[in-house]
Every structure is written in C-alpha cells, then in structure tokens.
Amino acid sequence: EELIEYAAFAESHSSHPIALSILKVYNKDVDTTKIEDYEEIAGHGILAKVGGKEILAGNSKLMNKENIKYQEVETLGTIVHVAVDKKYAGNIVISDAVKEDSADAIKGLKALGVRNTVMLTGDSKAVGEKIATQLGIDKVYTELLPTDKVEKIEALDAKKSHKGKIVFVGDGINDAPVLARADIGVAMGGLGSDAAIEAADIVIMTDEPSKIVTAIKVAKRTRKIVMQNIVFALGVKAIFLALGAVGVATMWEAVFADMGVAIIAILNAMRVMNTKSI
User: Fold this and answer.
1) Which of 197, 213, 229 is a domain's end point?
2) Out of 46, 101, 150, 232, which residue is the most buried by the measure of CB atoms under 10 Å away?
3) What is the pLDDT of residue 96?
4) Are residues 249 and 228 in the same domain?
5) Would you say 78 and 180 are in contact if contact means Cβ atoms under 8 Å apart?
C-alpha cells in the first residue's frame, strides 16, 4: 500500500494511461500540496519530491539512468519501478488489457486497403509481441523512446509509396511528436493527453479503436460526395455555357439552372450526415 501511495503521488500530475491506472488503484485524493517538485522524463517516467523525499517512478531505463539497482520482472505487463531517495522500493505490474474491438479495428483497416500495420511501443519485447500477435499486427517495434518512435515513423515514411500515407494513432503526451510527424495523426480523446489531442489531425472522443475505421469510411464518403458535386456543377455550367453561346439558352434559364445546381449540391452534401449506413 505504501508503494502504491509513493507511485500515486509521483504520477498525480500525469495524464498517461499508466498514471491513471495507478491513481485508480490508490483510490484516494492525492494531497498535491505535499508535492514540492515534479518532472516528467520523456520515455522514462516521473521524478517528484514529496514531503522531502525524492520519488522516482518509471521503467527500467529510468532506474539505469539514476544508477539504481532494481529487480528484474519477467511477468507480462507494464512494469513501473519505484525508488525513494535513490533506493529501490519495489515495482508495480500493470496488466495490458487489450480493448475489445482492437482486433476488429485491425481487420477493418486491412479490409479498407491498409497495407501495413505497425506497432510502436515503449513496452517490453515480450508484451509488445504478445499484443501484436493477438491483434494481427504485421510488425512491432518495442522498448522505444519518443525520439525512437519519430525515427521509426521517418524510416517508414521513406519506404512508403508515392501516394501512400502514414497514419499514427496515439494517446500519451510522449506520442505528440509522432502525431505531428505522421501524415495523419489520430488521438484517442477519451484517455488522450492534451498535448496529443492538440498535435493530432483527428480526435476520437471515445476509446474505441474501431472508430478509426469509421473515420476513414466517413472521409471516403465525404470525398466521393464532394467530387459528385464538383462534376455535376461544372457539367451543368459547361452545358449552359455552350447553349448560351449558340443562342439556345436564355439568361433566365441559365440563372435558374445555376440555382438548381446549388440546391441539388446542398441536398447531396447533406447525405454526409447520414452515418447509419457506414
């Protein structure tokens, strides 16, 4: 219980899903007045001074950086190591619960023509590979720092086809640079940090990965309707321009045709709001 309390104080200012899990288990109000200093170390964890004690909570990289001997854990899950005043206090294992519709989301993306699905994670190799296999993800890169994720995105960008686009989905503050670097950034708004939401092009306001598939379908449907309106409007205008040039169509007929095109285009555009069939 004391270990959870130390971790809760350290993670109290973080919006990372791991921090939220720890605070949920702690299930008490954190007295933030006791927190004298706070620093979030990207890709490593948290450094906080609470009641005169220096608390470190993070991954093995953080322990190695601070030269703290820690206990190796083989259990599958996200490991949060905790140290107090440079002395190892213990670890917390957070099981990785995969969202129910994640596998359906991957299948849906592939059905829409997504050629390659890649997982970039700071989790251990064992955890990353287990989840990738479970969901049917093509490739996984594990134990990555935020800068490593950006480098991987740039490497994937160099290999993509001329018309190909890279879509990155993330929720943590560490994902913000990658969301900004990708062609299209998607933030999971329900658990997403403010930095991730601000950097993203699309925000999914629920924590359902399958909504990414819905977003792509809506985008394709919208593009199709826009192209229909453009072709229809230009076609009618071209016809009446030709008829007017040879004296067949009068000015009033051209005006009524123009108004008719505008009304039909608006009615056609309203079909975008009907998402029940998507």
Assistant:
1) 213
2) 46
3) 67
4) yes
5) no
What is the residue-wise DSSP string for 128-156? HHHHHHHHT-SEEE-S--HHHHHHHHHHH
Pairing mode, strands 139-141 and 118-120: parallel
Identify the bridge partners of residue 92 per DSSP, sorted by sequence position.
Answer: 80
3-state secondary structure of 97: coil
Do residues 172 and 86 share a domain?
no
* DSSP run (H or E) holding 236: helix 210-245
Helix, coil or strand: residue 75? coil
Give the DSSP letter of residue 251. H
**Domain containing 39: what range?**
2-94
Instruction: Give the C-alpha separation, 229 to 166, whole Å.
Output: 28
Q: Residue 131 above 70 pLDDT?
A: yes
C-alpha 4/C-alpha 91 separation (Å) is 9
Q: What is the pTM of this model?
A: 0.71
248 and 203 in one domain?
A: no
Backbone φ and ψ for 47, nearest 5 degrees, come out as -120, 120
Q: Check which CATH number belongs to the domain holding 137 and give it.
A: 3.40.50.1000
Residue 205: count other Cβ atoms within 10 Å of its Cβ: 12
Sign of the dihedral defined by the CA atoms of residues 134, 139, 142, 144, in that order: negative
What is the percentage of the chain residues whose pLDDT exceeds 90? Answer: 28
Query: Quick one: tokens of 21?
Result: 């899990």
| C-beta atoms surrounding 114 within 10 Å | 16
Give the span between the Cα atoms of 140 and 121, in whole angstroms. Answer: 8
Cα 4 from Cα 94, distance rounded (Å) = 12
Q: Is the pLDDT of residue 235 over 80?
A: yes
Q: In terms of domains, do 106 and 204 share one?
A: yes
